[in-house]
Amino acid sequence: MVLGPISMSKERAEVMSFSEPLFMDQQIIAYSRPTLQPDLLGFVRPFTPFMWLMIAVAATFVFGTTSIMLSILEHWTRKRPTQQNGGKDGEEKKSENSPNIFQKTVLWTYGLMVAQRKSHFGM
């Protein structure tokens, strides 16, 4: 095997087999360097429309399940006696600035979609 500028002659062709010759010329191909173009919908491109539909279905399922679970939890804890009100039954123990079920559900669903813990939302 020989690599280098060896010309093909009749004598060399009888002794060795040559590959297809490459033709070298002094031509230069030039083109402009590609630049990054802003793409506003770049986050949508990695997934197909079917995948986005499945993500929406999953988010809706998580939203519905979370709202049902939080409704049940709030119903069970609402009528519970607390130490603050002297142990009287039936009094609300909801604070002034606690979010309602819809707000909690939105925050939980968003937190699950971006894989954040619930403590980041101040709950």
TrEMBL record:
<feature type="region of interest" description="Disordered">
    <location>
        <begin position="80"/>
        <end position="100"/>
    </location>
</feature>
<keyword id="KW-0472">Membrane</keyword>
<feature type="transmembrane region" description="Helical">
    <location>
        <begin position="50"/>
        <end position="73"/>
    </location>
</feature>
<protein>
    <submittedName>
        <fullName>Uncharacterized protein</fullName>
    </submittedName>
</protein>
<keyword id="KW-0812">Transmembrane</keyword>
<keyword id="KW-1133">Transmembrane helix</keyword>
<dbReference type="InterPro" id="IPR015683">
    <property type="entry name" value="Ionotropic_Glu_rcpt"/>
</dbReference>
